[in-house]
Amino acid sequence: MIVTTLIAGLVLGGTYALVAMGLTLQYGISRIMNLAYGETIIAASFLAYVLSSSLGINPLVSLLVAAPLGFAFSYMIYAIMLRPLVARSKTAMSLEIDSILATFGLLFVIQGVMLVFFGGNYISYSYMNFGVDILGASVAANRLLALVLALAIGGGLYLLLTRTLWGTALRAVAVAPSSAPLVGIDANRAVRLAFALGGALAACGGVVISMYQTFTATSGVVFTMKALIVVIMGGVGNLLGALSAGLILGLVETFVATYVSPGLTLAAVYLIFLGILLWRPSGLFGKARR
Amino acid sequence: MTTWHKRARSALGLSAILLFSVGGVSAIAQERTSVKIGYAVSKTGPNAGGAGITTIPNYVLWAKEVKDAGGLELPDGKRLPVEIIEYDDRSSAEEVVRATERLATQDKVDFIFAPWGTGFNLAVAPLFDRFGYPQLAVSAVTDKAPEFVKRWKKSFWLLGGGHDYTEALAGVLKQAKAAGTINGKIAMISVADGFGIDLVTAARPSFKKAGLEVTYDVTYPAGTTDFTPMINEAAKGGADTFVAFSYPPETFAITQQAQVAKFNPKVMYLGVGTGFPIYGKNNGANAEGIMSLGGIDPKNEANTAYRKRHEEVTGKAPDLWGSVITYASLQMLQEAIKRKGLDREAVSKELSTGTFKAVLGETKLENNQLRTLWFGGQWQNGQFVAIAPVDRPGAAKPILPKPVWQAK
């Protein structure tokens, strides 16, 4: 029984981790607190839904379409909308405030466009909704896919960030954005790439989530909130942090739902959140800054 | 002479006043070239999903039909075009109140259609009452309707109360238990929000009275996406009836996750969303046997014709619970206006005492409430047919036990 709960928790956590990893890149490296992050996720969900329901395209194939689109979209958003903010802000604090305000506006723009095209209706379709047996627990294949994707992306990007020159440059920009240019790093380019990469991850998350979760044009903010909790809990900008925080949240929710009461899952999540922040104010894997 | 003069002058003055006022009246009558109808409804925000299926398409359909018919018919046989004023309440209770007030005071509309949702209808009820508008509240499930009718004389409640639905469900289960089909043990989950709380509070005494035992009874926060733990726990307690008073996203999720978990209770009753056409479409053969609130009588031809028109005009099928009631409420209002004109007082009176020929058949309200309703339905052969109240003519026989999930 406890194994079943454990596996169910890990699978649920996989979704949380998948959703949060893009935001941790955008917030941690690009220093953009992107409130329109959830809308990017939902936009990708709509893409997968439209492709699958009207053209009969396999959502797994949409994944290959959505990721580059998410990348390109976020790249442009950064280049056109956010770059001027970065250029004019003198301190990290003012950039944070500006980016929050700007992306808050973006949230409504994307949401409005989706409302015009799709209306406010519930959208749901199911794909890969069959059970996979793992150690006696039946797990939904689509949710398992989310976990596998989260682990693969998290692990892959972690290696990329720690083992390659490119990744080192990105981390340098994250740690000391003003000093990075001194060693020949094009900080602007690195930051733009990280932001676009975050967008690509959000799009991947959106496609996978659309396979099993009902969404509407306005449900993006739920994902932003959840991702934000995971990101802060894991340590801003840390992929492994996001991965483990996501899994912890999934486990907590499932264990509380099974052994205490499903009514207390939210309370338990925020309790853990609070506990971790009291213990480590900059998150599980976060390094205290300054 | 002077008195004559005076008299003549005052007569002149009087007739001038009279003429003026007649002229004024005719001017007003001439100005009346259209009927203004307004509504505030959730087009965006969390409620948009529900309003977008049960309420808005029916308002649109009705407006188009009236337009195609050449306008809204008045007692003198004249038809006036309808001008619709629509506001989005953005799923905010403050906003729906503000917009309704605006409709009454600034837009000065002739009639106001009700918003979507129990809470929203309650929020605007005092305003409708204060400004003297009849309120045909459809998407509002409340046991307190008799009380509200006393408080707000022009309010009408057309979708029953939680108690009605749970009594109907208990009736079906009691029958099945007596037939030996089910063991009378129920696992029940509910969303910790308006609808779930109302229904579960009504369900507990209903089940108890029917001699049914609840073995698992928990609530979950709205927005929960993973039901695996609850399904696993529900399966363990020996109950072969599973009841979930859920909102649409959760209803869809439970259906999917029960299949993954190979959870096959003999009775599966889910909440809002089960009666959406998309539910039948998405789940195909696996929708078979699933029960919920509402349902339609497939043999009712007026309803079938309505469903066809709805799909033609709005591009999507109506849901199988509140949609047809929403449409019927508009038909009743239209008919009452035809009989009594634009006098809101008279129209309200007509609504509460008159008998109407609507899509539901002969319709008459009892104490400002619609009482002949289908309280329980079940997916049978791709249709969500009405099965409860079990003693109402036209009710289909429930298919029990629910067929086991088929692998896709």
Key phrases:
heterodimer, A: 290 residues, mainly alpha, ABC transporter involved in vitamin B12 uptake, BtuC, two-stranded antiparallel ribbon, 10 helices, 2 strands, 3% strand, globular, B: Rossmann fold, 2 domains, 4-stranded parallel sheet, 14 helices, elongated
Q: Any overview of this molecule?
A:
The complex is a heterodimer of chains A (290) and B (408). Chain A is mainly alpha-helical and 290 residues long. Chain A has a single domain (2-279), classed as ABC transporter involved in vitamin B12 uptake, BtuC, CATH 1.10.3470. Chain A is 73% helix and 3% strand. Chain A has 10 helices and 2 strands, in the order ααααββαααααα. A two-stranded antiparallel sheet of chain A has the order 1-2. In chain A, a hairpin with a 2-residue loop joins β1 (131-134) and β2. In chain A, α1 crosses α5 (141-163) and α5 packs across α6 (165-175). The longest helix of chain A is centred in the first third of the chain and has 30 residues, at 59-88. Chain B has 408 residues and is α/β, with parallel strands linked by helices. Chain B folds into 2 domains: 35-160 and 300-364, 3-Layer(aba) Sandwich (Rossmann fold), CATH 3.40.50.2300; 162-298 and 374-388, 3-Layer(aba) Sandwich (Rossmann fold). Helix content of chain B is 46%, strand content 17%. Chain B contains 14 helices and 16 strands. In chain B, strands 9-8-10-11 form a 4-stranded parallel β-sheet, sandwiched between helices. Chain B has a 3-stranded parallel β-sheet with strand order 4-1-5, sandwiched between helices. A 3-stranded antiparallel β-sheet of chain B has the order 12-15-16. In chain B, α3 (56-68) crosses α12, α3 (56-68) crosses α13 (323-340) and α7 (162-178) runs parallel beside α8 (194-209). Chain B is elongated, with a radius of gyration of 25 Å. The N and C termini of chain B lie far apart (105 Å). Mean pLDDT of chain B is 90; it is low at 18-29. Classes of the chains: A mainly alpha (290), B alpha/beta (408). The A-B interface holds A 4-5, 8, 12, 15, 111, 115, 119-122, 124-126, 129-131, 138-140, 212-219, 222, 250, 253-254, 257-258, 261-263, 265-266 and B 42-46, 48-49, 51-53, 189, 192, 218-221, 223-226, 228-230, 232-233, 248-249, 252-253, 256-257, 259-262, 273, 276, 278, 282, 407-408.
